[in-house]
TrEMBL record, chain A:
<keyword id="KW-0614">Plasmid</keyword>
<dbReference type="Pfam" id="PF02653">
    <property type="entry name" value="BPD_transp_2"/>
</dbReference>
<keyword id="KW-1003">Cell membrane</keyword>
<keyword id="KW-0472">Membrane</keyword>
<dbReference type="InterPro" id="IPR001851">
    <property type="entry name" value="ABC_transp_permease"/>
</dbReference>
<dbReference type="GO" id="GO:0022857">
    <property type="term" value="F:transmembrane transporter activity"/>
</dbReference>
<dbReference type="GO" id="GO:0005886">
    <property type="term" value="C:plasma membrane"/>
</dbReference>
<keyword id="KW-1133">Transmembrane helix</keyword>
<protein>
    <submittedName>
        <fullName>Ribose ABC transport system, permease protein RbsC</fullName>
    </submittedName>
</protein>
UniProtKB/TrEMBL annotation, chain B:
<dbReference type="InterPro" id="IPR027417">
    <property type="entry name" value="P-loop_NTPase"/>
</dbReference>
<dbReference type="GO" id="GO:0016887">
    <property type="term" value="F:ATP hydrolysis activity"/>
</dbReference>
<keyword id="KW-0813">Transport</keyword>
<dbReference type="GO" id="GO:0005524">
    <property type="term" value="F:ATP binding"/>
</dbReference>
<dbReference type="InterPro" id="IPR003439">
    <property type="entry name" value="ABC_transporter-like_ATP-bd"/>
</dbReference>
<dbReference type="Pfam" id="PF00005">
    <property type="entry name" value="ABC_tran"/>
</dbReference>
<keyword id="KW-0472">Membrane</keyword>
<protein>
    <submittedName>
        <fullName>Ribose ABC transport system, ATP-binding protein RbsA</fullName>
    </submittedName>
</protein>
<dbReference type="InterPro" id="IPR050107">
    <property type="entry name" value="ABC_carbohydrate_import_ATPase"/>
</dbReference>
């Protein structure tokens, strides 16, 4: 944390900006580097028990299985940075899948049906954003409501039955390659990661996210559009949850009402492992993605080693604990990216 | 102001009420281009509310607010407000962002535009350099959450100074500054008003500062303007105090003699390597100097942080308190100087705010009816104007909130009471009341430790003063007879 400034002569009018303004990558992403190392160690540990864990095939498996969680975590991160929470992402994920599959059953093509699916995200994100900003309700309560409503609607759409995906080309969304040689699920993760990280760090609106989470009252007094920023965060979060829902049904070619029920807590966990504070004001996209990867690697490892999968939650909990404790003691206070 | 008083801001007949209580009952207030204008009034007179209404963070009742551009043409309210910068009494800072971002971020009006870190740094550095070059270089990268209250205040002022506004509204900007910083701030304000035509509205309770910086003053009292744009030099201190409605307090307590009987009881000794300070029972010991030194001592006395430097020695007391709770239960009380962040419990009613310390000291299990009576008595003793003890603290003015903090320890039998700037942001009348109350507590044998950056205040209330230099070292102990402003500024290294 030694941001040394070159002491230079400081006669008036001289360029005062001999101050270093570029931070080193390691310095900026200290938590993230630590998680990356932890993931590598975890993978090696699993690999020492089950050698095929380190194969290319398993790597592809892990990323493909983890992609929806990664994308959902990026959305939750945006809300968490502003000091809010989004509990509705898992339900929105499920409902998106059901609506999309049902739309296809009604004869819509893959693209049109996907638009219906994303519409679910747009609608629920707007409801969340509206209730939090205009109505001024607590984010936890608001998203608890939409979590319950979207979750129940996911059953209502098909009366609880799971729906196979009728469109024969729909798998291309997940496993096709818009860029030859790079499967789409990796492409989407990368594009979203880079776009959101640049947005948060290099765009004024991105800094507003941190400002609002740091102190909404102060941000308001400074003329920062607090409500607009929060609204945008909830819409983005739901849209990303919807998109990860589409990606999942395109992968397993089947939509289920309960598909997303475990994802919400995992996404919040990923964001926390990635160094964000649930009190707002901190967190990075790189951290959230690594957090999601870590959870996926743990699940994969538990499966490969053959531990009863009921242990997954305990292992994940332990990982969160370790990550948070390390973060707590590695520095007194973490800045906003 | 030769060309017929060109006003940047004119407020006429402004009213504002919160629920049934009307705070502003018809305020006239106008600010000319290039002047420093003192806005004066007692606690709860409506100064902060007026500022809030001008900036639009509170809606107005009746009346009009007119902003004018340099050419004299009226601006719309929204447009006018964009050219107004405010330093709030309660700091508006973003703790997770850096100093540079805190200063520069408000300048980026458009969201979907690149945020230039380099530009932000340069901007912040220039702004901070206006007040303190060394601080600017050392701190632009730091997180605001890691700054002290007084550093935060500098950031906030730098932000306002660099905002490109025509009109600065400074609500007690010097409350957390040292004398030297205040001096630098004043020279910047003088330069900007003279050369750049900036107008400044300056709220302060420190008469000397008002005399030094303000050309004209407006006094409001009980929500009405009682003195409208009068040259500050034409009013005597007594006249100003009288107009504020606090003449009685001004006279009765002025230079109250230190006629107190010697009190028996056990004293207190604090040590660091090579230093030993003794506090006799019933004395009021002042602490002077820049925050570094006093902070460490105060932390040790109240258990606020594990001080590695100071140890306390007194029968039945540990050498180091493990927590403020332990300190409080053993009879060491504390009134924090950071009212907003560490003092007031914002979501709890006045009742709980006043009784907070008593409940800890007594180990109360239940919040009973007797507490309500006790609270009412305390509010009466402190002349707090409030509709109900169930109101939230934010319905009170800043000065009145300060009274609540002092009330927490009033009448609680304690051996030691540490006060950090207990009269910050408090008007003269209330100040004298607080002095009186603290003297009463001292006369019962309580040792009072009083940290203040206002040397005049230390001279008035303290029996002896411990001075710290700017490096945080203990630089001397002055007994009452030798106390003078010159001696204090010599030992603290701060300009008087």
């Amino acid at each position: 944390m030694t941001h040394t400034t070159t002491q230079g002569t400081q006669a008036a009018g001289q360029t005062p900006c001999a101050i270093r303004h570029r931070e080193s990558i390691i310095g900026t992403y200290r938590t993230e580097v630590a998680i990356a190392v932890a993931i590598a160690l975890l993978a090696l540990a699993v690999g020492s028990q089950v050698p095929q864990a380190l194969s290319w095939g398993n790597f592809a498996n892990v990323t493909q299985a983890g992609a929806p969680l990664i994308i959902m975590s990026l959305g939750v991160l945006l809300v968490v940075i502003t000091g809010g929470i989004d509990l509705s992402v898992g339900s929105v994920f499920s409902l998106t899948g059901m609506v999309t599959a049902q739309a296809m059953a009604y004869g819509y093509g893959g693209v049109a049906a996907s638009m219906f699916g994303l519409g679910v995200g747009l609608v629920f994100g707007s409801i969340n954003g509206f209730l939090v900003t205009i109505a001024g309700l607590a984010p936890f309560v608001v998203t608890l409501i939409t979590f319950a409503v979207a979750g129940s609607l996911a059953f209502i759409v098909t009366n609880g039955r799971s729906m196979p995906i009728p469109d024969p080309d729909f798998w291309l969304l997940n496993s096709g390659s818009l860029i030859p040689g790079l499967p789409n699920y990796i492409l989407f993760c990368l594009v979203l990661l880079v776009a959101i990280e640049i947005f948060l760090k290099k765009m004024v609106a991105g800094r507003w996210f941190y400002a609002v989470g740091s102190s909404a009252a102060a941000a308001y007094l400074l003329g920062i559009p607090v409500k607009r920023t929060k609204f945008f965060a909830y819409v983005a979060s739901s849209l990303l949850a919807s998109f990860s829902g589409l990606l999942t049904i395109s992968y397993i070619l089947n939509a289920e009402s309960t598909a997303g029920s475990s994802l919400m807590l995992q996404a919040i966990a990923a964001v926390v492992i990635g160094g964000a504070s649930l009190l707002g004001g901190t967190g990075t996209a790189v951290g959230a993605v690594l957090g999601a990867l870590m959870i996926t690697v743990i699940q994969n490892g538990v499966n490969l080693i053959g531990i009863n999968s009921f242990w997954q939650g305990s292992v994940t909990g332990l990982a969160i604990l370790i990550a948070v404790v390390i973060d707590r003691f590695s520095k007194s206070r973490r800045g906003a990216g | 102001m030769s060309n017929a008083q060109q006003f940047v801001l004119s407020v006429k007949g402004l009213t504002k009420s919160y629920g049934a209580t009307s705070v502003l009952k018809g305020v006239d207030f106008s600010v000319a281009r290039g002047e420093v204008h003192a806005l004066l009034g007692g606690n709860g007179a409506g100064k902060s509310t007026l500022i809030r209404v001008i900036t639009g963070s509170a809606t107005k009742g009746e009346g009009e607010i007119i902003f004018r551009d340099p050419a004299g043409a009226a601006r719309t309210e929204a447009e006018g407000r964009r050219k107004v910068a405010v330093v709030h009494q309660e700091l508006a800072l973003l703790p997770h962002l850096t100093v540079a971002e805190n200063i520069a971020l408000p300048h980026f009006r458009k969201g979907f535009a690149p945020f230039s870190r380099k530009g932000a740094l340069r901007h912040a550095h220039e702004a901070l350099s206006m007040i303190d070059r060394d601080f600017a270089s050392a701190s632009v990268h730091r997180l605001v959450g890691d700054l002290s209250l007084h550093e935060g205040q500098m950031v906030e002022i730098a932000r306002a100074l660099s905002s490109g506004a025509d009109l600065l509204l400074l609500d007690e900007p010097t409350a957390n500054l040292t004398a030297a910083e205040t001096e630098r701030l004043f020279s910047v304000l003088r330069r900007l008003t003279r050369n750049a035509g900036l107008s400044v509205v300056f709220v302060s309770h420190r008469m000397r500062e008002i005399r030094e910086i303000a050309d004209v003053c407006t006094i409001i009292r009980d929500g009405r303007t009682v003195v409208d744009r009068v040259p500050t030099a034409s009013l005597s201190d007594a006249a100003i105090v009288e107009k504020m409605g606090q003449l009685a307090a001004f006279h009765s307590a002025e230079h109250a003699p230190l006629a107190r009987a010697r009190v028996s009881g056990e004293g207190l000794t604090v040590r660091e390597d090579g230093n030993e300070l003794e506090f006799a029972p019933g004395t009021i010991v002042g602490i002077a100097g820049a925050p570094v030194g006093p902070q460490a001592l105060i932390d040790a006395l109240v258990g606020a942080a594990r001080s590695k430097r100071w140890t306390v020695s007194r029968a039945k007391w540990p050498t180091r308190f493990s927590s403020p709770r332990e300190a409080a239960r053993l009879g060491a009380g504390f009134v924090t100087g950071d009212r907003s962040q560490k003092g007031i419990l914002h979501s709890l009613p006045i009742l709980d705010n006043v009784l907070a310390s008593r409940r800890v000291v007594r180990g109360s299990l239940f919040a009973g009816a007797s507490e309500r009576i006790e609270c009412l008595d305390l509010l009466q003793a402190l002349k707090v104007k409030a509709d109900s003890i169930w109101d939230l603290p934010h319905t009170l003015s800043g000065g009145t909130q300060q009274k609540l903090l002092v009330a927490r320890w009033l009448g609680v039998p304690s051996d030691l009471l540490v006060l950090e700037e207990p009269t910050r942001g408090v008007d003269i009348g209330t100040k004298k009341e607080i002095y009186q109350l603290i003297r009463q507590m001292a006369s019962t044998g309580t040792i009072i430790v009083w940290w203040s950056t206002e040397n005049v205040e230390l001279l008035e209330v303290c029996d002896r003063v411990i001075a710290f230099d700017t490096e945080g070292r203990c630089s001397g102990l002055i007994e009452h007879g030798d106390l003078s402003e010159d001696r204090l500024s010599e030992l603290t290294g701060l300009a008087a």
